């Protein structure tokens, strides 16, 4: 009996095996096709680092030449959005059903003059790429953020600042820019040529045109040594003015206020030095692994004792050393050192507030009361300093200011976002009441009235936008909130 069924059964098994293989191959092909379709679909969703603001656009282009951008704008008629590193956190890089220009492949160095200490770059290049280029010439960027991952165009569009002593907004280091207007025209702008475009596009959040080139002023790269000092927050303003503000040897400075009491801080300043290096690397290696940093931040946010241990154990241990490094090394931080394992149920974000320097001691108690009232999960408040903006229409430094950079964690639920919206508006009011401002690259929770109060020259900006972008082509979630709601006669496409 067994011999009678052996051969027919083997044939049947062979047929089944072949059919199974065919089925697997078909399913794999369908899956690959579906994956490709999903990939195409996913590529139309533009989000930022917080993952709280996904926006589906109609088309994405990744140009490498100015001509590609001009063609894309002139051969379409709908809304246009512009994105770089996507570190703005409130939808400032996207708009529904827009043509999205992804600038990250637009990243060439176009000109370099070592003697003049100037470099001209395409706007999609990242600060770290420029550092790699100029470090062999012992040059350094004059102004940039603390972290080097951001694109130049994005940084110009929000008019960033860093920790640089004696400086302020990024515009102070910009010789000129080139931008493409809504009609496809390429314009050169500087403080002396097309100055109205220059002072509107820098800090203009993509509302005036596409910044495609920038010529930046550089500085000498020097060795810097770190000094720190802990003190009550109430003593910091006087300490800063007496020991840091006018010290020409000081390069970087910031002060970290410790939550949840917000009564103590640590002032950290880096000075030019001739001391021997404690770190030979000229830049932080790109392949550095950041394992413990994000875990420690999560732990600090998760447990009440975490904040205490950071203030009384972790930071005192970190600051027992006295490092001496190159300026470029200290300016080449990577945001990966902050990136959590995922942002599904919780995410980390920033907010920032600027107050006139003389109002420092009035603002801190207001900030403390708001954060404690809303039980906000604040990880750190970093105090920076900036001199007055030279003339951008959306200047956040209307006078000499202290900047309060707030790093916090929140849940991603709609309820949690509503709580953040409430304390954000309260903080906006606190800064505005003292003649200050809040920063625009973050969640778009402000009211149009708060925007107008914090940015009193916004009507000049809107008038110029109407002149150069009459069909309201350059859009994003910020402009949909504060531009459209401040203009009842605007005809939207």
Describe the structure.
It is a single chain. The strands form four sheets. The chain has an eight-stranded antiparallel β-sheet with strand order 15-12-14-13-17-18-16-19. Strands 6, 7, 8, 9, 10 and 11 form a six-stranded antiparallel β-sheet that branches. Strands 3-5-4 form a three-stranded parallel β-sheet, with helices on one face. With 493 residues, the chain is an alpha+beta fold. The longest helix has 42 residues, at 2-43. Helix 7 (292-302) packs across helix 8 and helix 10 (360-373) packs antiparallel against helix 11 (414-433). The model is unreliable at 1-41 and 488-493 (pLDDT under 50). It is built from 14 helices and 19 strands. The chain has helices spanning 2-43, 66-74, 127-134, 152-158, 195-201, 236-243, 292-302, 304-318, 327-330, 360-373, 414-433, 448-454, 458-468, 477-482, and strands at residues 45-46, 55-56, 59-61, 80-83, 99-102, 109-113, 118-122, 139-141, 174-180, 186-189, 210-220, 223-232, 250-257, 264-272, 324-326, 346-356, 377-386, 401-411, 437-438.
Which structural traits does this protein have?
single chain; 493 residues; alpha+beta; Vanillyl-alcohol Oxidase, Chain A, domain 3; 8-stranded antiparallel beta sheet; 6-stranded antiparallel beta sheet; 14 helices; 19 strands; disordered N terminus; disordered C terminus
């Amino acid at each position: 009996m067994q011999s009678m069924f052996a051969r027919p059964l083997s044939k049947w098994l062979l047929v089944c095996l072949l059919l199974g293989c065919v089925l697997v191959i078909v399913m794999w092909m369908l899956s690959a096709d579906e994956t490709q379709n999903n990939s195409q679909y996913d590529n139309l969703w533009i989000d930022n680092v917080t993952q709280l603001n996904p926006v589906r656009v109609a088309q994405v282009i990744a140009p490498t030449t100015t001509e590609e951008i001009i063609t894309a704008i002139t051969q379409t008629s709908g809304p246009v959005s512009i994105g770089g590193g996507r570190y703005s956190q409130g939808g400032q890089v996207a708009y529904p059903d827009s043509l999205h220009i992804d600038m990250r492949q637009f990243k060439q160095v176009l000109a370099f003059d070592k003697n003049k200490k100037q470099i001209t770059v395409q706007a999609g290049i990242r600060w770290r790429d420029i550092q790699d280029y100029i470090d062999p010439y012992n040059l350094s960027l004059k102004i940039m953020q603390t972290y080097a991952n951001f694109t130049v165009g994005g940084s110009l569009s929000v008019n960033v600042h860093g920790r640089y002593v004696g400086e302020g907004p990024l515009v102070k280091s910009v010789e000129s820019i080139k931008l493409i207007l809504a009609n496809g025209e390429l314009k050169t702008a500087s403080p002396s040529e097309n100055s109205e475009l220059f002072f509107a596009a820098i800090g203009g959040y993509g509302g005036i045109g596409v910044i495609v080139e920038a010529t930046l002023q550089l500085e000498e790269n020097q060795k810097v040594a770190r000094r720190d000092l802990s003190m009550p927050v109430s003593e910091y303003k006087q300490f800063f003015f007496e020991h840091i503000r006018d010290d020409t040897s000081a390069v970087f400075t910031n002060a970290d206020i410790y939550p949840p009491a917000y009564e103590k801080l640590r002032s950290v300043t880096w000075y030019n030095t001739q001391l021997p290096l404690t770190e030979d690397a000229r830049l932080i290696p790109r392949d550095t692994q950041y394992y413990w940093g994000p875990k420690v931040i999560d732990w600090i946010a998760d447990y009440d004792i975490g904040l205490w241990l950071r203030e009384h154990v972790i930071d005192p241990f970190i600051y027992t050393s006295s490092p001496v490094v190159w300026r470029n090394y200290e300016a080449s931080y990577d945001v990966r050192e902050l990136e959590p394992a995922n942002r599904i149920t919780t995410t980390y974000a920033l907010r920032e507030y600027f107050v006139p320097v003389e109002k420092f001691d009035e603002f801190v108690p207001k900030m403390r009361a708001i954060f404690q009232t809303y039980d906000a999960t604040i990880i750190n408040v970093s105090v920076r300093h900036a001199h007055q903006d030279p003339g951008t229409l959306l200047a956040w430094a209307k006078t000499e200011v202290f900047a309060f950079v707030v790093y916090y964690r929140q849940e991603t639920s709609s309820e949690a976002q509503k709580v953040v919206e409430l304390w954000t508006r309260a903080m906006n009011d606190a800064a505005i009441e003292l003649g200050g401002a809040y920063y625009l690259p973050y969640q778009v929770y402000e009211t149009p009235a708060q925007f107008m109060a914090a940015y009193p020259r916004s009507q000049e900006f809107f008038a110029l936008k109407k002149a150069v972008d009459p069909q309201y082509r350059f859009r994003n979630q910020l402009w949909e909130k504060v531009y459209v709601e401040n203009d009842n006669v605007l005809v939207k496409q």
